[in-house]
Automatic annotation (TrEMBL):
Top-level taxonomic group: Bacteria
PROSITE patterns: CNMP_BINDING_3
Domain Cyclic nucleotide-binding: 9-111
Family annotation (InterPro entries): cNMP-bd_dom, cNMP-bd_dom_sf, Env_Response_Regulators, RmlC-like_jellyroll
UniProt cross-references to Pfam families, sorted A to Z: cNMP_binding
Name of the featured protein: Cyclic nucleotide-binding domain-containing protein
Transmembrane regions listed in the UniProt entry: none
Species: Streptomyces broussonetiae
Length: 155
């Protein structure tokens, strides 16, 4: 089962909202191997990948972090900044050199509060990203744990 691609900001936000949001962006770079954020840390920013790849991972006691998803061009890194208590639910590490647009979460939340239409657009975009990632995680879990042929409708 294939899920549609993650809705990128360029497709998800109306031009005016995209332009206003991009005024808050700053270009950043992360060398390969850089831990961008740690699970449980303060979610005070987010990124949109321009080039490179980032893995989202989860802490597993006594083991290496478990990779949850790999992200690439035009994908959102981080959604925890939008929801209280603004703490990262996962970690993120650059698996290749990454160039990205970085956004200050407080400034974006303030912009969204001041302009409810923009806030609604951003919330819908982030919600679509979350829905896509949940569908992808569900598919991976089914592939990993469902018995072969389960749910095929035969029988």
């Amino acid at each position: 089962m294939n899920t549609p691609p993650t809705p990128g900001m360029l497709r998800a936000l109306p031009l005016e909202h995209r332009q206003r949001l991009m005024r808050l962006a700053r270009e950043v770079a992360f060398p390969q191997g850089t831990r961008i954020f740690q699970e449980g840390g303060r979610a005070d920013r987010f990124w949109i990948i321009r080039t490179g790849t980032v893995e989202l991972d989860m802490h597993v006691p006594g083991r290496r972090p478990a990779v949850i998803e790999s992200l690439g061009h035009n994908e959102l890194i981080g959604w925890s900044w939008l929801f209280s208590p603004h703490v990262w639910h996962l970690g993120a590490v650059a698996t290749s050199p990454v160039r990205a647009y970085e956004f200050d979460a407080t400034a974006v939340r303030s912009l969204c509060q001041d302009d409810p239409a923009l806030g609604n657009s951003v919330a819908r975009w982030v919600g679509d990203v979350l829905a896509h990632r949940l569908r992808s995680a569900r598919t991976r879990l089914l592939d990993l744990y469902a018995p072969y042929g389960a749910g095929t409708g035969t029988g």
